[in-house]
Write a structure and sequence with these properties.
Length: 117
């Protein structure tokens, strides 16, 4: 879960409404643009559901030419990667705080029409 810090503490503390078993990251300052990056680690050679395996399978598109990538190419590459990575394909949704509090993360996925991983 990523959300704004509501505690005002230093360092920031998870919000009281978050379940104790959840992992929380503070979003940071809201008066400047933020971006979320997702990092993948190098897998063991025997692990065949990695980002690297998806790349080797051709689940890519050219985004270095300076020309916007057609949406269909992005979707095709994502579907290809999901096929290679299976259960290890990362999935995320935006969720309203109240929805999360009443229905949990599963409710967030349902509201976004994304199958629960």
């Amino acid at each position: 879960m990523i959300s704004a810090d509501e505690s005002g503490a230093q360092p920031p503390a998870p919000p009281a409404w978050l379940p104790p078993h959840a992992t929380w990251l503070p979003w940071g300052a809201t008066d400047v643009p933020n971006i979320l990056l997702f990092r993948n680690m190098l897998p063991a050679p025997s692990f065949h559901q990695s980002v690297q395996a998806a790349e080797a399978a051709g689940c890519t598109f050219d985004n270095e030419s300076g020309v916007p990538v057609p949406y269909e190419d992005v979707v095709d590459a994502g579907q290809c990667a999901q096929g290679v990575m299976g259960a290890y394909y990362p999935v995320a949704v935006y969720c309203d705080k109240q929805l999360f509090m009443t229905r949990g993360w599963q409710g967030c996925f349902a509201a976004a029409s994304v199958p629960v991983p």
